[in-house]
């Protein structure tokens, strides 16, 4: 998924990248310079039936629930809406309430396997561990992702890992090999993810070698 609210960048990405959806939060909205109403409306037009994950900013359980329900109805979302709920004590309660109300939930701001396990037991559809932020505090983001994936298999949980917070393509590679079901990635890294200098060299050589040989007009 694309971790951005930059509509121009999303248009470029959706022109070629088979994205499953878009994730947002207040920081991303701030960087894009878009208010929530404008950003989500534009994102909806691009993703179609793809997933849209929207961060809740309320601190109290009842307010998180009201906020999620309001966004779901305001933007006329279907099942492709995911309320991003932080794994606080009141957030865990909101996860259960929202799931009972039939609203998809992404548990966010996860830094430990235990937080993810509790969130999935509460009903979270996705859990979002912050890989690079863990690495920045001398923890091991990739290992945390692997531990969460192992728990899903060991306990037969329905949740999935949505790995987040990356600084390098190598981190994305390693979480995919650790079994992460999905990842939300900045546009810059998404572009890097599909490129390799040897590919560019190979394509250029094809162009050179084809000169004078491809004689069928199209």
Distance between the termini: 35 Å
- List the total number of helices: 11
Q: What spatial order of strands do you see in the largest sheet?
A: 1-2-3-4-5-6-7-8
* Count of individual beta strands: 8
Q: Could you spell the SSE succession in H and E letters?
A: EHEHHEHEHEHEHHEHEHH
Structural class: alpha/beta
Given as residue ranges, the uncertain stretches (5+ residues, pLDDT < 50) are: none
Describe what this molecule looks like in 3D:
With 218 residues, the protein is of the alpha/beta class. The protein contains eleven helices and eight strands. Strands 1-2-3-4-5-6-7-8 form an eight-stranded parallel sheet. 39% of the residues are buried.
In short:
This protein is of the alpha/beta class and 218 residues long.
